[in-house]
Amino acid sequence: MTPVELSRTVLRAVRRAVEEGELSVAVPERAVVTPPGPGGRGDYATNIALQLAGPAGRPPRQVAEILRPHISRTEGVCDVEITGPGFLNIHLDGAATAALVRSIQQGAQQGAQQGAQQGAQHDAQQGAQHGGQPGFQQAYGHSDNLLGEVVTLRIPYDIRAEVVADALVRIIGSQGGRVEVEHAEPVNLRPVPAPEDPAPLGPDAARWALLYPAAHDRPRITADHLVQRASNPLFRVRYAHARARALHRNAAALGFTSTPGDVREEDAREGAREVATALAEYPHALAHSAAHRAPDRLARHLVAVADALLAFQYTVLPRGEEKPSAAHRARLALAEAAGTVLAGGLSLLGIDAPEHL
Question: Measuring CA to CA, which residue among 77, 89, 67 is closest to residue 23?
Fold first, then answer.
């Protein structure tokens, strides 16, 4: 269950409470659902009770108590806690992670099958519209949010503007839209230019250097983008993808493959929940990148996915004389799903995702 789906769940809970006469408020247009902050519990939290307390004329915790059972009855939710002044902390059923992983796997399989059916010439013609990979319009996180919408980007003759527009062609295409790029006035896409030519960094590092900062920030064209250490966000993203592929190969050598499964409590403590949360938020980050013409949002979210996977990777394979179990297969499936998302996101940015690094 993604934050967007949970937001809809919270709004349905408010609507039911209103319809049943438990609350007298106007149902808001949106409900903010985020990972819990310090002191919070569960997988996600929402402040909807605090938001509605004033209009309802009730204390926030009382509003939270009214909404709690309506949210708890939702499939995929195993518990809802109330913390602080009235925050609703939502615990997802472990099966929700298995469903998330299956969704990512199915998107990758559909994309591969569709790509195999299309000729190379057709792929080349459709690539710009559908995310730059054969059949990739079926990938996880892609949607029809902008279906039928034609976006005209008018840009100056500037290398950063060109690269940002090129990434937006694929990102907006992933949401069903189509982009037309023009060099014309008035300009409607003008990121702060790079202080110098990024070409010496090489194609991948140069693109990252231009795309990772927000449009209003001046990009750094420095050798930092080339170093293979944790301080380099691009390295972390590509290394995390390479580690996901290595885990797949190492598991095969041990004689087992992945199977999506529930995240147990010990898995959650070892970082599985952070990986699942980052993956669940990927469609939201991609949609925001398209809507706000901001590839930097996608780039920053890929870093979050990578950091979660790199912390989780050490729990995936059996240790010592330990035999592969259902838990190992589920952890491997989660790691592979993270690798799939990293590869897809990098592809949208026009950056290679190597299997070995």
Answer: 67
